[in-house]
Amino acid sequence: MLYSNGMDYTKMTDRELIERIVAKPVDEAVHNYFFKVQCEPFLRHVAKNILNEDNVSNIWGEFYEFISANDWSVLRNFSGKNNSSLYTYLSNCAVHYFLKVRKKNSRIVCVDMAECDVASLLDSFSADKEEEYSSVWQAFDRLKERDRLLLREMVINERSALDVADEIWRFVRSAERDWRKLPVKRVQDTISMMKRRALMNLFEQLKGSFLS
């Protein structure tokens, strides 16, 4: 959808577009245009060539968290220096950011497989085994509150992203504090990405003990 209240977003200047994106209340139409039309070409490049992702939608949540952090500081910092367009600026920002993500992800091997096994790895969560204080439990206990909550609720209790959104969203660096005002897919992608990070952090903790 490119139009809202009779406005054609395709004819906006870069500065006008930024002002509409960071404005409150959230304009869903301009957000959809920005993320799904303006940003999709360079995000498709990032997904395929940097992250080995076939589906660009797999990185929407990660990109949204990055771009909206600190009250949309990435967008607010755009200056058009050297006649650079907003598209070129954001493309460079996205490439640099996701290169860092790839570097971080490369430290953990087989995270997807780990998600399948994590329920058994965290078997020590059951009441009759907690007192054993296994290496897995110790690793879990060292995680941040956000990661402990995500693993317990989404992996152990098998709750969906939307089921835990009320509890999790306070940890999300988003300009919009009420997740219900955002598109459902964006909320799901963001929380799923956070769960993946929690799994990575758990296995990082386990590397020195449980996985050695």
Largest sheet: 2 strands, antiparallel
| Number of DSSP E strands | 2
Name the overall outline: globular
SSE topology string: EEHHHHHHHHHH
Strand content: under 5%
Continuous helix count: 10
Structural class by secondary-structure content:
mainly alpha
Structural features, described:
By secondary structure, the protein is mainly α. Helices cover 60% and strands 2% of the residues. It has a two-stranded antiparallel ribbon with strand order 1-2. β1 (3-4) and β2 (7-8) form a beta hairpin. α4 (60-76) packs across α5 (86-105), α4 packs across α10 (184-206) and α9 packs across α10 (184-206). The protein is globular, with a radius of gyration of 20 Å. It starts with a strand and ends in a 6-residue tail after the last helix.
What is the topology?
Elements: E1 3-4, E2 7-8, H1 14-22, H2 28-38, H3 40-49, H4 60-76, H5 86-105, H6 111-121, H7 135-141, H8 145-156, H9 161-168, H10 184-206
Antiparallel strand pairs: 1-2
Helix pairs in contact: 4-5, 4-10, 6-10, 7-10, 8-9, 8-10, 9-10
